[in-house]
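Lab meeting, action items carried over

1. Structure of the two-component assembly. Owner: GW. Status: complete.
Input record:
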Amino acid sequence: MTGCGKAQRLMASAAYEPPEGKESAFLTRHLASCETCRREQARLAAFLKSLPADRPELGLDLLPLVRQRLAAGDRAVKVPLALTRFAFAGAVVALVLFSGLYVHLARTGSRAIPPGGEQVAAVSPVAESMDRAEALAESRDYAEACRVLRQAVERYPEDVYAGEAHLRLASLLFDELRLYEDAYATYRIAIENYRDTYMNRPDRAAIFRRFDLLQESEKHRFASLRALDASREFEDYETVIARFSGTRVASLAARRMADIVAAESELSDPQLRVAALKSARERCTHPFAQAQLSLEIGITYEHELMDPGEARPFYQAAGDSANPELARLGNDALRQLGR
Amino acid sequence: MTRNDGGRFAGFTDEELAQALKSGQDSAFDEIVHRYQGRVYAVAFRVTGSREDALDVAQDVFVKAYQKIHSWRPTGEFQSWLLRLTSNQAIDLLRRRKRRRTEQLEQAAPAEQRRSGATGTVVAVETELNAREIEERIQLALEVLSPSQKTVFVLRHYEGLQLSDIAKVVGCTVGSVKVHLFRALKKLQKELGDFYEEMGQ
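Predicted assembly:
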C-alpha cells in the first residue's frame, strides 16, 4: 500500500510524542486502512515497552575532578575504574587531598582559566571583548562586533584568548558579513599563529574545510562564493556549477540543488539524498552541472552509504566529462576505488 | 556529595545559573555541575558505550562549559547548549580514540558463593544477572547506530527530551530528528529482535 514508508517513519516519533496537524491526520487515516502498518505499530510498541529506560548511575561527584582539571591546565583526570563501583564520596575527597590541588577560583575574581592552562591574575581583556562582541552579535550588530574583536586582537595578540577571538572574528566575517577576503586573512592568522587553540577545537575539521573553501575561492577573487550567495533558484546553482566546475563551491551548489529537490519531496538522510541528487541531475541541462552532480552522487554512495560499487558508474560519468577539472576529479576517484 | 557553595543557587533556573556564571559568579558553576552531571554522564555513556570514556567526556564537557560560557546566548536554552557540547564531545571521542572494549559487566560472583539456601536470594541474583545481560546487549546494539542516530535515540528514549529540543541539541531540523529516530529504532529492532525472543519476551 502506498504511504507505508511515510507512515512507518511517523510511527517511530509518534511512539514517543503524538503527531499533530497533517501528520496526525495522515497517520490516523493510513492506519485505519493498512493492516501491515497496524501490525508494525504493535510490534514497535511492544519493542519499546521491553527496552529499559534506566539512566546509568554516575556514582560520584565530578565537581572536584573538574575543578582540579581547570586548575591543572585542563589535563584529563583519570578516575580509576575500581573506585567507581561503590558509593564513595570519601574516595573522591581522598583523591583531591592526595593531589593537593583544590583550587579556589572564585576568590581571585578571575573568571578565566585560559585554554593555554596558565592561571591569569587579571581578567583577560580579549575575553571581555569577546563578551561584548557576543552581545553585539546577538543584537545583529555584526560590523561593530567585528570591530571590537579586531581591535582586541590587534592590541593584545599575546592574550590567551587571542586565538579564539580570531576564530570568532573569522566566522562572523564569513557567515554574517560575507567579507570573504577579510575572513580568509583572519582564518589564516588563526591557523598559522594560534595553532594550539585551533588544534584543540573539536570543530577544527570544519574550520579547515572552510579555510580550504576560501583558499580555493581566492583564486577567483572570491567571485565563486559571491555567485553562490546570490543564487536562489535551481537554475542559479546550475549556472554556478557551469562557471566554477570541479570546485568546492560547485560541490556546495550541487548539494543545494539536491536540497531544493529534497525539500520539494520531504526527503532526508543519505539514501534519499542520493535520490534527490539524481533528480537534480535529471533536471540539469548543462553538461558540466550533470557531471558535477554525478561526482556528488558517487561521493555520497562511497562515503555516506559505504557502497563503492554503486559509486563507480557515477565517478565514470564525471570522468568522461568535457570539463577537465571534473574529468580529473572523476578519474582520481575511480583510481582510489581501484585500490 | 560535597558542595562548595551553601546552595545559594539551588532555586535558580538553568538560564539564571548560566547568566550568573557568565557575569563572573564562579560558584554558580558548582550548581551547574551538580544539577547536570548525572544527565551529561548518562548521555556520554550511552553514546560512547564505556564508563571510562563517559567519565572523561563528562569532565571535558564541564571544563568546556566553564571556559566557553561566554559563547552561550541567553536567547537559547542552557540545557540544549550543554547537551550539544556533550554529544559533540562524545562523538568526537568515538572518532578520535581506538575503541577499547572494556568489560562493562562487573565480574559476577559465581552463583555458588551467593546462594544462601533461600530461593529468594538465588532468584534475585539471576534477575540481577539478566538485567545486566540485557543492559550489555542494548549497549552493544547501540554500536550499530550512526553517531546522529545514537544521539537522537539516547536523548529521546533515555533522557526524554522533546523532539524539538533534540533538534536544537543536534543542530538539525525536527524532520531530520524523526528520520534518525526511525532509522535507529529499525536497526535496534533488527539487532535485539532475536535476543528478546531468547529471553522469552
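2. GW to write a short summary for the group page. Key points so far: The two ends of chain A are 43 Å apart (CA to CA). The mean pLDDT of chain A is 81.
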